């Protein structure tokens, strides 16, 4: 991977990190405890708890992605960056641009 491609990926990763950080803040707000004395009705409370559970899962996945993006950014200057962790073949630039946290090629993923 050449310097220009790494710079493109670096910019993409920074953009993804920024977006993920914003999403984490929003999801943390949406996953606040549901107050039991709020008069929202039984069905609405169940829907709120279900929505909260979905948001908690999304929050967990977003935090994992954020961690992978930060790891990827820290490894971007290594000589083996962009090589599949399993088969050691180059990961196509298109895949890296779509999923900058990728450390495996399509076949190994």
Could you explain how this protein is built, in words?
- 7% of the residues are buried.
- The chain contains three helices and no strands.
- The chain has a domain of 76 residues.
- With 109 residues, the protein is an all-alpha fold.
- It is elongated.
- Helix 1 runs antiparallel to helix 2.
- The two termini are 20 Å apart.
* Morphology: elongated
The topology string of helices and strands comes to HHH
For the secondary structure, the number of strands is 0
First-last Cα distance: 20 Å
Low-confidence stretches: none
Structural class: mainly alpha
How much β-strand is present in the residues? under 5%
Instruction: Please give the share of residues in helix.
Output: 55-70%
Mean pLDDT: 91
DSSP summary: helix tally:
3
Radius of gyration based on Cα positions: 19 Å
Summarize the biggest pleated sheet.
Answer: none
SSE layout and pairings?
Blueprint: H1 3-30, H2 42-75, H3 93-98
Helix pairs in contact: 1-2
Give the structure's gist in a few sentences.
62% of the residues lie in helices and 0% in strands.
State the main characteristics:
109 residues, mainly alpha, 3 helices, 62% helix, 0% strand
